[in-house]
Amino acid sequence: MESNLENSLACSRCDRVLIVYDTKRGNSATRAIAECIADILKKEGLEAIVCRASEQCPSLEVFDLIVLGSPIYYERPMKSVTEFIDRNKGLAGFKVAVYITCFVASREVPSPIRNFVIRKYLGSILKHVRGEVVASKAFKGWWRSRDEHVLEECIEWCRELVRVVTSNR
Ligand SMILES: Cc1cc2nc3c(=O)[nH]c(=O)nc-3n(C[C@H](O)[C@H](O)[C@H](O)COP(=O)(O)O)c2cc1C
Question: Which fold has domain 14-162?
Answer without folding.
Answer: Rossmann fold (3.40.50)
